[in-house]
Amino acid sequence: MKTVLTAVASVVSIAAVAAALPPHLEEAITNAVAVTEARAYTNAEGASLSYRFHAPVKVETGKRYPLVLFLHGAGSRGSDNTRQLCNGVWPMLSYMKAKGTECYLIAPQCPVGQRWWGFVDGKLSDNPTVPMALVMGLLDKTIKEYPVDASRVYVTGLSMGGSGTWEIILRRPELFAAAMPICGRNDPSLAARIRSIPIWVFHGDRDNVVPPSCSRQMVAALWQCDGNVRYREYPGVKHNSWEATYADPTVLEWFFSQVKK
Fold first, then answer.
1. Mind listing the pLDDT tens digit for each residue in 107-143?
2. Contact at 8 Å (CB) between 104 and 119?
């Protein structure tokens, strides 16, 4: 009976979250929930972070698999461990399935009132925020415990998660095969740290939440140090530049084809 009640409560919780969203996002959450597992990561100090976890349907002995880290935007913060699935996760998993490629994916949820990025006045802080430190710990734990292909670890995120994408590659540049920050910002003065990582940056030129100048500055700094970066700016698009990005199979093909040397 307890198991049945738990399952019913989970369905009700998902329905409550999805009900406040447009139909296409409701569908994305429902689909992503069906192929991910709700988990929580706790570090040695007792701090915890909720996340969704996707694993290959069948893990073959001796085979290693790509790992994707997805960082959501500020609007998906909370404690339901569901809302972070409304953008990006389902398109990426659908693409991988269509290509016949299995992968691991982790999608943490940042608590309300906190954030992934820790820069102040445009400069990266000495220490990460608590949620970002937990994300890095979770990433290390996942790579250690599962047959992850260390040459194919990817990160992408939107808005606050776009800034978080910049942040985690600046703090752990040796880890990633590719990064895809969408409408984010960070510290251009540190661009040389990440010059060897393949990065594709996206922003809408009418973004009134995170100005497109934030992405332009990061890209310009990378070009100046001969970084491996490309940039797409969507004309007439406001803050939701992630919709076109994750819906574009050529973008996802580029992302998942990158292999760290």
1. 999 999 999 999 888 899 999 999 999 999 999 999 9
2. no
